[in-house]
Specification:
There is one protein chain. By secondary structure, this protein is mainly alpha-helical. The chain has helices spanning about 10-35, 40-50, 55-90, 95-105, 110-120, 130-145, 150-165, 170-180, 185-210, 220-230, 235-255, 270-275, 280-290, 300-330, 335-345, 350-365, 370-380, 385, 390-400, 410-420, 425-450; strands spanning about 5, 10. Strand 1 (about 5) and strand 2 (about 10) form a beta hairpin.
């Protein structure tokens, strides 16, 4: 396919690159400036890109359907089950219980480190925005009790939540990006969990040594007092952690059955482990485990209203994820993969490429989830040509999707408003923290790339 118009002539590869750049600008403009729903934007981007590379109409329709269906055929159940489980953890107070447990273990000497760890664990199952709102009363109470500025505790909590949100399945963004890229979920849990520790700790250090320079009073209102009072009647920490860790352990156990690892002899139990460790099945098990947190008199409400609320919350995420898969499929069948693979291979930037793409998307349009899915769609056709490890690629995309949170990101405003900070201060103490934690995560991923191929 050659594009000719007058004196202009370009190869299919160059044309597809120009089309991709225009499509990315199109996505950024409509999501960031026009505030159009990301699902509609991504579907329109599929059509725009396909038109620019002169893809046949019937092929456009077929590949949009294929990308959307294949992505959701795998990840749809995971998203719904994970969102329902997160809703139950919120409603039952399990998120408070886990945080309270961590505070008791750590908070006497390192109160804001306790909040970082609490955020790290909570955001595996609960969206970072919701997690911050849920835990903010405890955040303010701890700041008051420890005589710390709310900037210190809020940044610690927010960066802990953000690290897991962008790096560790079964959090929605990482697991959806893994599906688009084709990365092993169990391996991503291990790598993402390891990398997220360094990201979390970077945020903690920034809060401890820099954010403390700016004192903001941790004002506690009646609603916060009511929440703190609820801490006296929460489910046990052990029961609260189980819905998160059982699915993770099942997924990891399933990963060990991979014949390439040669760790387990073949047998019927391998089939059982693979069945239970399928991410969708594992998270459905997590949903039923989370029901043990529900008081008997609330069980009917949980299975009716809370399940429905979880499904409603999942709907938009599913739509965006499917559209991201469709965009990825359109890119796969175009010349962009071969062209960029050949061109970028000479640049020798390797694992930094997915980080740069995700960071640019995140900074420009604000949503970490959209950045994760769009960057994964762009990188998917390049993995084999560039010789990148799929797990490290998704981790690098997650690191970029943290970099950096500012005024076009809803999470920025959640942290700012609930911490009683001015936006200008939040830029200094929180936005810079996200830049640093994303960069720290990328450094760790780069080091890992020497050992994981």
């Amino acid at each position: 396919m050659i594009f000719n118009k007058g004196v202009f002539s370009m190869s299919p590869g160059v044309l597809s690159l120009i089309a991709l750049l225009i499509s990315v600008i199109f996505i950024i403009y409509l999501t960031a400036k026009v505030k159009m729903n990301a699902f509609i934007v991504l579907i329109l981007a599929c059509i725009l890109y396909a038109a620019m590379v002169r893809m046949p109409f019937e092929s456009v329709i077929t590949n949009i359907h294929k990308g959307f269906g294949n992505t959701l055929g795998y990840i749809g159940i995971v998203i719904i089950a994970g969102t329902i489980m997160g809703t139950i953890l919120e409603k039952t107070g399990a998120a408070y219980s886990m945080t309270n447990f961590i505070l008791k273990l750590v908070s006497k000497r390192f109160p804001n480190l306790a909040l970082s760890i609490a955020g790290y664990i909570t955001s595996i199952a609960v969206f970072c925005d919701s997690g911050f709102v849920i835990l903010n009363s405890i955040n303010k109470s701890l700041a008051k009790r420890s005589k710390l500025s709310i900037t210190v505790t809020s940044v610690s909590l927010a960066t802990g939540l953000f690290a897991s949100h962008c790096l560790i399945p079964p959090a929605t963004g990482p697991i959806a990006a893994a599906q688009i890229i084709g990365a092993n979920i169990g391996g991503l849990i291990l790598v993402g969990g390891f990398v997220a520790i360094f990201a979390m700790f970077t945020g903690f250090l920034w809060a401890t040594f820099f954010a403390k320079r700016y004192y903001v009073e941790p004002n506690i209102d009646d609603a916060d007092l009511e929440t703190i009072e609820k801490l006296k009647s929460l489910p046990s920490p052990f029961k609260s952690f189980l819905p998160i860790f059982i699915p993770i352990l099942l997924i990891l156990a399933s990963s060990l059955t991979n014949p390439k690892l040669n760790l387990l002899p073949p047998g019927e139990y391998v089939k059982i482990l693979n069945f239970l460790g399928d991410p969708g099945n594992a998270l459905i098990i997590g949903v039923f485990v989370s029901l043990t947190l529900v008081k008997k008199e609330m069980l009917k409400t949980a299975v009716n209203e809370w399940f429905t609320e979880g499904v409603k919350r999942a709907a938009l995420i599913i739509a965006i994820t499917g559209a991201g898969g469709a965009f990825g499929q359109i890119l796969k069948v175009s010349p962009i993969g071969d062209f960029l693979g050949t061109t970028l291979a000479t640049w020798n930037i390797g694992i930094f490429l997915p980080f740069i793409i995700a960071a640019a998307l995140k900074t420009a349009q604000g949503s970490s989830t959209v950045a994760l899915l769009t960057a994964a769609s762009i990188m998917s056709p390049l993995i084999a040509t560039l010789g990148l490890n799929p797990i490290l690629t998704v981790a690098a995309i997650g690191a970029g999707a943290m970099t950096f949170s500012h005024a076009n990101d809803s999470y920025f405003w959640v942290v700012t408003q609930f911490s009683n900070m001015e936006a200008s201060l939040s830029y200094r103490v929180f936005s810079i923290a996200t830049l640093l934690e994303g960069s720290a995560a990328m450094i760790v991923i780069f080091i890992l790339s020497f050992f994981i191929h």
